[in-house]
Specification:
Two copies of one chain form a homodimer. With 402 residues, chain A is of the alpha/beta class. Chain A has 13 helices and 14 strands. The first copy, chain A, has a domain of 261 residues: NAD(P)-binding Rossmann-like Domain (Rossmann fold, 3-Layer(aba) Sandwich), CATH 3.40.50.720. In chain A, the strands form four sheets. Chain A has a seven-stranded parallel β-sheet, with helices on both faces. The first copy, chain A, has a three-stranded mixed β-sheet with strand order 9-11-13. In chain A, strand 6 and strand 7 form a beta hairpin. Chain A is globular and about 55 Å long. At the A-B interface, helix 6, strand 6, strand 7 and helix 7 of A face helix 6, strand 6, strand 7 and helix 7 of B.
């Protein structure tokens, strides 16, 4: 199949280009390279070095024997987007080209407005462009499990049957996102649902859990083919940050009690799931939602797993509770479905500890890079709009003996 | 109270400034005057002449004995917005400053992107500005009944208790909007709900039905104080358009079967309801939703009422069905609640026919202006992204004998 990846330079886009190419798909993509700038803006860098685009493309051709068509540009440039889609005529478009950080979107008015404009209008342009030049193509759009928030009932996949005052309907499950970033994904969801209904576009909207990991097998050993791995307060997600903290023997830091429960999945599962979606497209006019995660854990459970994984490779780290910079529930019911991908053949990686050991081993080589930006590990962007560095608030758990 | 009106030059903003001032409130406002340009852009003009801002302000001072503080500007200009709110220190902010037309938002990619950017980022800026300079003020935000779409169950006011797989929660009622414009209001709803929860802002989100009417008593006879009345396919709403059609003896045109059921309310009820909301603010952190309409009617029922009202003032008009330029359900269940405003004392105007007679009499003086832009009465903006003028498709109903 011909697969177009928007956001092909990113944490998931770059490995996905390799994964799909290794499976025999033809890949092209677009990226404005903004993630590189955002991480720099918040005072950090990727733990794993990120090579210049021309070096990445050169290595790609060497490894896969085929060039990767790359466009430097933006979904906000509607004319460019139409041109590149018209030229490539994709069977599927994977849309990963959004600003993906909740804290970044909460910094101030300018960052909130940038995030909502960039994500919502970029995605809206993608809908119009697909309608205009490739209306049969399948849009695989990255949403987030964070769209649903933490309701006190089970979370279905996108829709649920409602009985209200004796009548029934199947309705979109209510969304209660908790940052201006997560809200952009809610807005995209509503726009995409409408475009499918009205224009007969076909879309899979992926409510993805938090991804972690440094590797997929297809990357091989070439450092130019590796993906980025961020650990700063904005772009570093929980497990990735824990593994970077472990490597520099920094305490693993939990926001508040660490009782926040979320769905997580390793990068290799994300690749597997996105590919299942791509290779089994919905019908024209169909808008379907996949909840995409391996399993749900509290952040504290994951820190304990990371502590054990670190011990297994000879690193002893404590776990600390720091005051939570976010306004969020720290203890709540959480039981989302994820049967749609299983039905398509998704085989979850259950050994999270093994994945963490791989990560810590990978990251040991980049210990100095993490140390050089260790300040970025502790949050100071607060949901109330102020900046104040989080302090240690809770008892340190007994560390595992190595 | 000190009430700041964003969109004070508009169809509702201008009469609201007068209504509130007459009740003893102190009013200031902002407007970029874009509605004047949009109506011109789609080839039309207001049936009732709209005076220049300086003339409006002069007449305002003459009638009410107090100047109206007016700022020409845009909610997209965040620094200006903060300045004017900080200077006025409002008790309430009524936010009417959005692009309000579904067809305008469906013209093409550029109009859809403009609409979503203007409305979503403008409203987002309002939230940040209020947080920054008047966090105790009450935001009265204009949403639309169109956010809910036409579900097959009753429509509550914003929230409903859900029982799902044996557990319960109170959740936002699902939104299924049917144009890129209506979707902006859904996006605003989610952003506003989050800001109230996270920042302790207080807001009333008004899910308003379709407003009609040319008068409120407070306007008196000064033509400079009259509000605009649009009849074009973008900015003319159903009853306003029917009354303009009646005045030029043009058939009243229904989109498709005319079985679309909606909530409607006269302008004087809209003023009454907005004022009830303003004068009974919610608690800090409270986000409440009011469904605001007098009664639900099918569009066909309203055309029949307009036909009778026209007959009563000596005008005979036919009713025609034209092909529906929108993708929408033309026969559906529709039963929304509207108890919150009734509980605050809202007394609905039940005599819709009397209101229509007032409108037709008012509009007779502007017959030539409507005739001059009669082409704008028939839609050609279609939900599939094309432009094609709607044709008569259905039997013409027997007209009422005058």
């Amino acid at each position: 199949m011909r697969v177009f990846i928007a956001g092909i330079d990113g944490y998931l886009g770059w490995p996905l280009a390799q994964y799909l190419t290794a499976r025999g798909h033809e890949v092209a993509g677009i990226d404005k390279l903004l993630r590189r700038r955002w991480v720099e803006e918040v005072g950090s860098h990727s733990a794993i070095p990120v090579y210049a685009v021309y070096e990445r493309l050169h290595a790609f051709r060497e490894r896969f024997g085929t060039p990767l068509t790359f466009h430097e540009g933006d979904l906000l440039d509607y004319a460019l987007l139409c041109d590149v889609l018209a030229a490539f005529q994709p069977d599927a478009v994977v849309h990963l080209a959004e600003m993906p950080s909740a804290p970044y979107s909460m910094i101030d008015q300018a960052h909130a407005a940038f995030t909502q404009h960039n994500n919502v209008i970029g995605s809206l342009n993608m809908l119009w462009a697909m309608k205009a030049v490739c209306p049969q193509a399948h849009l695989v759009k990255l949403g987030t499990m964070g769209e649903y928030g933490t309701p006190n009932v089970d979370i279905p996949e996108g829709f649920f049957e409602v009985e209200f005052r004796g009548r029934k309907d199947v309705l979109p499950f209510p969304r209660q996102a908790n940052s201006f970033y997560h809200l952009t994904k809610v807005h995209d969801t509503h726009n995409t649902m409408f475009a499918c209904k009205t224009w007969e576009l076909r879309a899979t909207d992926i409510m993805q859990g938090v991804v972690f990991g440094t590797q997929i097998d297809e990357m091989g050993d070439d450092p130019r083919l590796r993906s980025r791995l961020d650990f700063d307060q904005c772009f570093g997600t929980a497990i990735n940050r824990f593994c970077c903290q472990a490597v520099i023997e920094h305490p693993l830091t939990l926001y508040g009690s660490g009782g926040q429960k979320r769905g997580f999945l390793p990068m290799r599962d994300s690749m597997q799931c996105l590919t299942l979606a791509i290779e089994s497209p919905p019908e024209p006019g169909e808008y379907r939602v996949f909840n995409q995660f391996e399993e749900c854990y509290t952040v504290e459970e994951l820190a304990l797993k990371a502590q054990v994984a670190a011990a297994a490779v000879g690193i002893t780290v404590e776990i600390q509770h720091i005051d939570n910079p976010r306004t969020e529930q720290e203890a709540h019911y959480y039981n989302p479905d994820r049967s749609h991908l299983i039905a398509l053949g998704y085989e979850p990686t259950h050994d999270v500890a093994a994945e963490m050991r791989i990560m810590i081993n990978d990251l040991k080589a980049h210990r100095d890079r993490i140390l050089a930006r260790r300040d970025a590990l502790i949050p100071d962007i607060r949901w109330d709009g102020t900046r104040r560095r989080s302090q240690v608030i809770g008892a340190v758990l007994t560390s595992v003996k190595s």
